[in-house]
Amino acid sequence: MPLTSYNTRITAPVTPTNGFIPGDIVSITFSGFSATEIDVTQLVSTGKKYAMGRKDCGTCTIVTNVDPATAAKPRVPGTAEPIYEYTMYLGSVTATPGTSGIKMIFDAFLQSTTFDIATDDVVKATYTLQITGDLKTGSLVYSAT
């Protein structure tokens, strides 16, 4: 059975609640995973040679429907935005939330927030998290927990 978005969710520390992403999540996008290249070509090399440099784990963009019925208000970045650990579980129709599926763990801070307010549509908030450091051990692998 292919992996689907059903049961996909992202969690952040409950205390402090500042790491929490408020609203009903509509989509989650990871982008910008890349590694720098270091030119290690020597004068005697017959072709260009490269070594892999440091990885940049990019950003995580989360789009939510703003729900005024909840106590959680939309977040905007602060002047000294703290770094929180986020855990994302990629769901599946056959996955039981929190018990199976693919798990990604990363540290990130809130880089930007945008609001989309349009006629005949719900108000959406888009949160961009800047991932800092590497993905944690065990990330991007199938997990039984």
Query: How many beta-strand elements?
Result: 9
Shape: elongated
Order of helices and strands: EEEEEEEEE
Helix percent band: under 10%
Helix count, DSSP H or I runs of 4 or more residues:
0
Q: Proportion of β residues?
A: 35-45%
Instruction: Label the structural class.
Output: mainly beta
Distance between the termini: 19 Å
Would you kindly provide a written description of the structure presented here, covering whatever features stand out?
The structure is a single chain. By secondary structure, this protein is mainly β. The chain has a single domain, classed as Beta Barrel (Elongation Factor Tu (Ef-tu), domain 3), CATH 2.40.30. The protein is 0% helix and 44% strand. The protein contains no helices and nine strands. It has strands at 9-11, 24-31, 34-39, 50-56, 59-65, 84-90, 102-116, 124-132, 141-142. Strands 1, 2, 5, 6, 7, 8 and 9 form a seven-stranded antiparallel sheet that branches. A two-stranded antiparallel sheet has the order 3-4. β7 (102-116) and β8 form a beta hairpin. Mean pLDDT is 76; it is low at 139-145.
Summary, kept brief:
The chain is an all-beta fold and 145 residues long. Helix content is 0%, strand content 44%. The protein has strands at residues 9-11, 24-31, 34-39, 50-56, 59-65, 84-90, 102-116, 124-132, 141-142.
